[in-house]
Design a protein that fits this description.
With 205 residues, this protein is α/β, with parallel strands linked by helices. The chain has seven helices and nine strands. The longest helix has 13 residues. It starts with a strand and ends with a helix. Keywords: Glutamine amidotransferase, Transferase.
Amino acid sequence: MFLDKLNTLADWEISFLTSELVSKRYFKNQNEDVTILKVGSTKAPIKTLGGMIINPDITVNEMDTNINDLLILPGADTWFEQDNQKIIKVAKDRIEKGLKIAAICGATGALAKAGALNNKKHTSNDIEYLKMFSPEYTGEAYYVNEPVIKDENLITASGLAPIEFTYEIIKQLDLFREETLSAWYNLYIKKEQKYFYELMSSLKK
């Protein structure tokens, strides 16, 4: 799995996802490992919006762009800077090839600006957000006003929907049992105690 890292990365948009992938606490197969390769435009450290310093593992040029490992594009305030054009091109190519990609918040704006969403069902922070920041965008007919949308191997989400974003990625990767994922989702969305017990119970099956 590839996780793009760029300055001003929105920590909270991927924190639910990375904590579950690394801890494996709810995996249906505890022997399954998910390797997360942090990708940067260079190997220079980046600083998130929360002030965390992260060192990329590889550069965009070192990616194997043909394998169908998921590429995750988190939100950030710097998506339209020149340094990020290479990963945007890689992402657009992957979408055209039907490879797995997941983008949230500002990353959807970058994809829209590159024309990568013009014929794919997608969502973002708002349709007006895409049109304001991406005048090249012509995919309004494919925009769906939902927190998260999955169209084949493409997942897009609003920056207000990190739980929904994580849910769709874990579902796509088939890492949790169905009942575990359902309880996990309901616990965070509905915040009712009964879903915690459903979650714990699902792990005993």
